[in-house]
Write a structure and sequence with these properties.
Trp Operon Repressor, Chain A, two-stranded antiparallel sheet, alpha/beta, about 35% helix, binds S-adenosylmethionine, 8 helices, about 10% strand, about 230 residues, Alpha/beta knot, 2 domains, 3-stranded parallel beta sheet, single chain
Length: about 230
């Protein structure tokens, strides 16, 4: 699942430029059960589905961490909702492990003893933590200094200062009678900047008024320090 995402575009270039190193670890390699490489079992007390057993996760995390200080994340619907500020905070940590849950989830003792934080990518349930892990990896990697070129600048992107990005246009200035706002053709950078800010405000007010409320309260968009 990971290769097509990690080996394309900005994530690929970030690894080539050594801005980030991403390793995928197969939990089955750490299973005590060498014959069947078993990593899941039935939940105590009954109930549907299987749970990821503690042993492979405890041993994998211990081996991967080694002596390094590592922040361990578990992708979970019960986690804190992921946000841009959350991603920014993660860029300040040197080593991250992201546990991808599967089946009905993981044994609670892993959460209690190994996990530093749980992150949710939204109020819905996915099959596994692979997509959330890639989503977090993508959002964090593109924020690492030097990963994006000038062409893909982070300035004035959505969620900067709790605002969404306003409308953008490219050539032609007149597409089948639909014209670009004249201010963008004026060449007056100051006026364009003011227009863009007001458009960003209007759009945010229309589609995400909750962000503006946070902006007015001076809070970051996930309640965390940005
Ligand atoms: N039984 C779990 C529950 O009700 O919370 C759901 C398990 S889900 C089928 C399997 C795995 O997918 C989870 O352990 C988690 O790692 C991942 N996952 C599913 N939805 C997610 C979400 N919204 N955010 C982050 N991870 C999610």
């Amino acid at each position: 699942m990971f290769a097509p995402i990690l080996n394309e575009s900005i994530l690929k270039r970030a690894q080539e430029k050594k801005k980030v190193a991403i390793h995928i670890h197969d939990l089955r390699d750490y299973a005590d059960d060498k014959k069947h490489r078993k990593v899941d079992d039935r939940p105590f007390g009954g109930g549907p589905g299987m749970l990821m057993m503690p042993q492979p996760l405890f041993d994998a995390i211990k081996a991967i961490k080694g002596r390094r200080k590592v922040h361990v994340i578990y992708t979970s619907p019960a986690g804190k909702p992921f946000s841009q500020n959350h991603a920014k905070r993660l860029t300040r940590l040197k080593n991250l492990i992201i546990i991808c849950g599967h089946y009905e989830g993981i044994d609670e003792r892993v959460r209690e003893h190994l996990v530093d934080e749980e992150i949710s990518v939204g109020d819905y349930v996915l099959t596994g933590g692979e997509l959330p892990a890639m989503l977090i990896t993508d959002a964090v990697t593109r924020l690492i200094p030097g990963v994006l070129g000038k062409k893909e600048s982070l300035v004035s992107e959505s969620f900067e200062g709790n605002l969404l990005e306003g409308p953008q246009y490219t050539r032609p200035a007149n597409f089948r009678g639909k014209k670009v706002p004249p201010v963008l053709l004026s060449g007056n950078h100051k006026t364009i900047e003011i227009w863009r800010k007001s458009q960003a405000l209007t759009k945010t007010k229309k589609v995400r008024p909750d962000l503006l409320e946070k902006k007015n309260k001076g809070a970051s968009n996930d309640g965390n320090e940005s």
